[in-house]
Write a structure and sequence with these properties.
about 210 residues, 6 helices, alpha+beta, 2 domains
């Protein structure tokens, strides 16, 4: 049995074997790609295939650019291409949710050093992301405004802008408040600098 790269295997797929499937919904409408399923025997698979399960190479092809993407899949039982495509697209949705939580709810902005404070920040960020996600889902079916306009579902950034105007308190911008937080940040930077200096002195003394 010969050995082939993923690109070489994709080139051998006949035109009739490609299947066009919807893979999600973007800002410009539904996303469709061409997909192909190749049953493979990988180099690292056990000799006894009955016990090893089933290995697949799933190929995704862009409809216009013909750019290829490859996914190595494994299943204990035979599965259809539709099932594998659904699993692959679910992974995309999870990645998009994490990106949304980072960009809209500050999931990746918690600059803390201990477990408790880190978990508190993450939990609050995930709660905020969940509120945006639930509200986004609700706007797909109902809109509270009194008009006859046809509207696309509200994006996360659109919802956040509305929440800031209607529900979230306006940030304080007076001079006293700004100077207070400036002093707080500079004090903690000073403490961090002193802690590093003491640690460097300790390690320097230990090595001499």
């Amino acid at each position: 049995m010969g050995r082939f790269s993923a690109t070489e295997l994709a080139a051998k797929v006949p035109a009739r074997a490609w299947m066009r499937r919807r893979t999600g919904n973007g800002t410009k409408g539904d996303r469709h790609y061409d997909w192909a399923l190749i049953d493979v025997l990988a180099d690292d698979a056990p000799v006894d295939r009955d016990e090893a399960g089933h290995a697949f190479l799933v190929v995704r092809r862009h409809r216009y650019t013909r750019e290829l993407s490859f996914y190595r899949c494994h299943s204990a039982t035979p599965v259809s291409l539709a099932v594998l495509v659904n699993i692959i697209c679910t992974r995309w949705k999870i990645e998009e949710d994490f990106q949304g939580a980072k960009g809209l709810a500050g999931l990746d902005q918690g600059q803390v050093t201990c477990w408790t404070s880190w978990m508190r920040w993450s939990l609050i960020s995930l709660f905020a992301a969940a509120v945006l996600a639930v509200t986004h889902a609700a706007t797909r079916t109902v809109d509270g405004a009194d008009h006859d306009l046809q509207l696309a579902p509200a994006s996360g950034r659109e919802l956040l802008a509305v929440l800031r105007i209607t529900a979230l308190p306006t940030p304080r911008r007076d001079l006293e408040h700004a100077l207070h937080w400036s002093a707080w940040r500079r004090h903690h930077r000073h403490q961090a600098t002193e802690a590093h200096r003491r640690w460097n002195n300790i390690t320097a003394a230990a090595t001499t």
